Amino acid sequence: MATFYDLLQHLEKQPDVINCVSLTALFRFINIATSLKDDIILIQPAEAQTSSPPPVLSPAFNTFLAAACSILPAQANHAWALLRHVIWHGAIDVDVSSIWENDARRRGFAEYLLYPPSQYCTKPHCLRRGKGMTLKKAEQRNVVLFTLAHGPCAARSVQLYCQDCNIDYRHNYTVFEGMRTYYDEQPETIQVTDHVFMEKGVVELFKTAMDVSWTSATNCARLYNMCLSQGKQTPEGYHIKFEITGDHVWDAFVITALLKDSKHRMHSLTVPQTGDQRDRFTKAMMDRNCRIRLYGYEDVCRHHCNRCTRMYANDQGVTTHKSATHAVRNDGNCSIVGCDLPVVSGRRTCLTPAHQHVEKTYQLRGQSRFQLQERLARSRVAHPNDAVSQDVEILTLHPPEAEEEYELNETGTLALPVVDSSGDPTPEQPTRRRLKAMFGRRRTHNEQLMVAPCGMIIARQTFFGAEGVASVKDFIKNVYAGADAIKPNHIFFDNNCTLSKMVKDDPFFEDIGLSVDVFHFNCKHSQSDTYCQQNCNPADYPELLGVISHTFALLIRSSGCQIRSDPIHRSVPDPLR
Predict the structure, then answer these.
(1) Where does the pLDDT of residue 184 fall: very low under 50, low under 70, confident under 90, or very high at 90 and above?
(2) Which one of 30, 212, 480, 559 is separated from 113 by 20 to 30 angstroms, measured CA to CA?
(3) Which of 26, 38, 39 is nearest to 68 (CA)?
(4) Per-residue confidence band for 468, with pLDDT thresholds at 50, 70 and 90
(5) Strand partners, 459
(6) What stretch of H or E contains 495?
(7) CB atoms < 10 A from the CB of 560, how many?
(8) How many other C-beta atoms are found inside a 10 Å radius of the C-beta of residue 303?
């Protein structure tokens, strides 16, 4: 300690040398020179002792250190002469991790402090801001920060409160009148839940794993806990686990995706502060999906490149093609078909007694012995959401994917599954009330794409139940509903003969040719269908054809749209849907 005091006394006599530039250059010189030790030894004579530093550096090392530290070469030589023994023996210990993990926590300090971006209230007419006063009413809480380089770390989240404006400032957002508004410029850490934060690099790792290797959220969490946590355990007395869960992964995914979408649109993301975490971002996700479905991406409805536009009386061609299905979650309504009431917490049905009786019967069926024996062989395999096999609830492992019918007794207090609903009740059998329920996942029918012949995806929409022609009609009209939208002159669709009949009196389709692409027209449509042959044959539109060796060839490449839609069959479902 006496040596440290002597150093301070020496610096006190020359205060002009103490500044950020000089100290930065000093520590940078020591760090870089320490890293170059083996290279310095390599160019020394073979007889030189490696235990002692050379008295001077070679010109190459001296020039590099001078440029790296923004000092003169002569100053670099002087610094080496003064510090070479310290550098050579690595006497500077900058590892303070043990101090933060032990002594700092015991004294109430934390290495990672997650403050709001500003110490001042940002409201324009705030009285405290006008007086130049910082925010002093603070609340602290212990949290865990998941990092890439250092694994899970104990941290402290600090929120500041403006008493004049009643605004609560937190690390990623403000809270005012029950609404959470995220900052336009976000820090490098994201608050996932009240006590869990993640570096953006960790979230990007999870996104990449999902996109490249189809890794589930559960396995993303397991990957981090096993490989990146560095074996750290939750400190004794610390009430937040040093462990990522699948819910944390999905929450981080949703939050960062919505923030990216909001930044692209130059809007602030606003969600409710109250309520359950699982419901907080639902409306924002639905609004985003509705906007993408109706309007697509910016300017795509005005797309008309040279590859999908032929300058034949300003005609264009655009086609739609179907793609794969994927599962969606229930929207929080009662599982009884036709009932739109919200579910009771912890259940899948509403408050209606008859509906709850149906759910009770459903649960009893899932717990029955024969169901367990029937599915025992499949209950211990690796599941898509988790690579590690485990015993799970049967109804969770194999949820029904079709509607089930239940019959209530005369008093309405007991519901039994209908085994055979094909027969009608006889006069001797009293007619009992029947209810249909969907307790499992509802599956979409297909993802419908509208693709330009050049391969650009114009829009996308999820179809439920079937690929209805009426839904295709609405899809087309929604995409080109804007006043500035450029409607195509031709739309290829494999069922255009039915669509053409449906829209023959619709003014929107007056100047749009509805033909079937060549493959489907030749292979899938009957020659006896007079209407299709006369109205949907692409050969009837001369602007689509070109003369090649005295034969007709389709110039608008409709097959490119089908080729472009193929990767959708292999893609990961949209998590925001």
Answers:
(1) very high
(2) 30
(3) 26
(4) confident
(5) 450
(6) none
(7) 18
(8) 20
Question: Which single residue is written with the structure tokens 């419901």?
Answer: 279
Nearest CA to 575 out of 258, 335, 354, 340 is that of: 258
Strands 404-408 and 415-417 come out as antiparallel
Residue 128 half-sphere exposure toward CB, CA atoms < 13 A: 17
Degrees, nearest 5: CA angle 476-478-482: 115
Identity of the amino acid at 409: N
Q: What are the Cα distances from residue 554, in Å, to 245, 452, 484, 526, 534?
A: 54, 15, 29, 21, 18
Q: How far apart are CA 541 and CA 543, in angstroms?
A: 6
Distance CA(540)–CA(543), nearest Å, equals 9
Q: How far apart are CA 401 and CA 488, in angstroms?
A: 39
Rounded CA Rg of the chain: 34
How does 8-37 read in b/e, with b if 16+ C-beta sit within 10 Å?
eeeeeeeeeeeeeeeeebeeebbeebbebe
> Do residues 275 and 141 make contact, with C-beta atoms less than 8 angstroms apart?
no
Q: Pull the structure tokens for residue 483.
A: 């006043």
Residue-by-residue DSSP string for 342-369: BPPTTSSS-S-HHHHHHHHHHHHHHHSH
8 A C-beta contact, residue 320 and residue 475: yes
Residue type, 270: T
Closest CA to 321 of 13, 15, 568, 103: 568
Quick count: other Cβ atoms within 10 Å of Cβ 543?
18
Residues 25-48 have a mean pLDDT of 88
Is beta strand 545-548 parallel, antiparallel or unpaired with respect to 434-437?
Answer: unpaired
Q: Are 228 and 243 in contact (CB under 8 A)?
A: no
Q: Which of 216, 84, 240 is nearest to 154 (CA)?
A: 240
Q: pTM of the predicted model, to two decimals? A: 0.63
Residue 116, Cα to own-chain centre: how many angstroms?
Answer: 24
169 strand-pairing partners: 160, 174
Per-position DSSP letters for 367-411, written without gaps between them: HSHHHHHHTGGGTTSPBTTBSS-----HHHHS---S-EEEEE-TT
- 309 three-state secondary structure: strand
Pairing outcome for strands 167-169 and 173-176: antiparallel
Looking at residue 267, what DSSP letter applies?
-
Phi/psi of residue 140, each to 5°?
Answer: -115, 150
User: What average pLDDT does this structure show over 84-105?
Assistant: 73
Place of tokens 């007794």: 409
